[in-house]
Amino acid sequence: MKATFRQGVTTFLMFLMLALSVSAQAERKLLDQVVAIVDDDVILQTELEARINTIISRLQAQGTGLPPRDVLEQRVLDQLITESIQLQMADKMGMRISDNELNETMDNIARQNNMTRAEFEQQLAAEGVSYRQAREQIRNEMLTSRVQQRQVGNRVRVTDREVENYLQALEAQGGNTAEYRLAYIFIQVDDPTSEASVEAARAKAQDLRQQIVDGRDFREVAVAESDASNALEGGDMGWRTENQLPSLVAPVVPDLAPGEPSPVLENNSGFHLVMVMDKRGGEQKQLVRQHKVRHILVRPSEARTDAEAEARIRDLYRQLQDGADFAELAKEYSDDPVSGSDGGNLGWVSRGQMVPAFEQAMLEADLGELKGPFRSRFGWHILQVQERREKDVTGEARESDARQAIYRRKFETELQNWLREIRDEAFVEFKGEYAEESPAGEEAGASS
């Protein structure tokens, strides 16, 4: 009797363990189910949920209202699809972000936020994001940015005549240097050749503007409705000087009060709304601090390990301390062929021209000091700052700013067109519940 009872208990426990195992497997399968196939890649439910949670945390920190869950899911899924397409393009182009380069970028982000790496990791953890997750997301953003620069940048040309006309127009306006913190909404026309499609997009833009006038948060509308690439950031465009404003909104922004939405603006790509979130006065800097610097670079290579490169640069450093001539060592040993042939001279260098590790060492160095050895993504360096000066670069800065402003305007327009093109050309197949809820005109298994 007791044996029979024990056998029954054992059998029950085996069935219970089997049931729990099947349940756990089913749960894992559910969590990791494929929600979309994008060309040669897949997007998993776990990826979608992680990105949604990150965006919700950011929007809540900004005080931005959240759209309905199903709307947010669809918009984040669209973002992941577009990101996947670009990352696959980067892979096919052979683009890579090295760990050293990524580490420099992460450290630079921490410094910009006045944090150490440890404090940065703690801040990310408080927001529910691991440092490893943040690293991979930054890596992906760096890759997509490089793909965009290569593919879209090739379409953009800025002529000297355009720069001249721009500067003349700016001069006629009095050279206003006010800065505006902008948010932006873009409503795309699905079929520009269809008048009905154009009118539908116009009506939607006008309705959204009225909702904003009636009190709905602009950033919330951007998250839920905008077709711009920065929609999930609440349409935030950051601070722009007047000469950096996109040409479509430049005529209206100076007359907008903070918190006031612009009229609905139209161009060939669709309909647009912009809001000035904040405004501040600003004066264009006339002087920049420059550093006359020279360096010696030793790169790791297939024939030289990183440890061997470090040993070489440390040996060169010892020779310099013992009185060796910097220029002669640079000519003989530097792996920077351009500066090496000129005794290591890089000329006059301003902030922002060098990679973060090099710039930090340059700024910290005393005049005549041998700074190093230190490592950047290019390899191992020794540098020496020979002189410092304050230079009036007003004219050069104006021309450079004008060229960049024109380029940025053109780039933003071309980027939207390009993103739409690659999305239309990609094969996208939605799975599970998303197959049933896929956007009109894009059924599961259809070539997009």
Strand content: 15-25%
The tally of domains stands at 2
CATH architecture of the largest domain: Roll
Number of strands: 11
The sequence of SSEs as H and E is HEEHHHHHHEHHEEEEHHHEHEEHEH
Number of helices: 15
Q: In angstroms, what separates the terminal alpha carbons?
A: 68 Å
CATH class of the largest domain: Alpha Beta
Please give the order of strands in the largest beta sheet: 4-3-6-5
Q: Note poorly predicted spans.
A: 1-30, 440-448
Helix content: 40-55%
At the fold tier of CATH, the topology name of the largest domain is Chitinase A, domain 3
Mean pLDDT: 84
By secondary-structure content and strand pairing, the structural class works out as: alpha+beta
The profile of the biggest β sheet is: 4 strands, antiparallel
Shape designation: globular
How large, in whole angstroms, is the Cα Rg? 28 Å
Question: Concise description?
Answer:
This protein has 448 residues and is α+β, with helices and mostly antiparallel strands. The protein contains 15 helices and eleven strands.
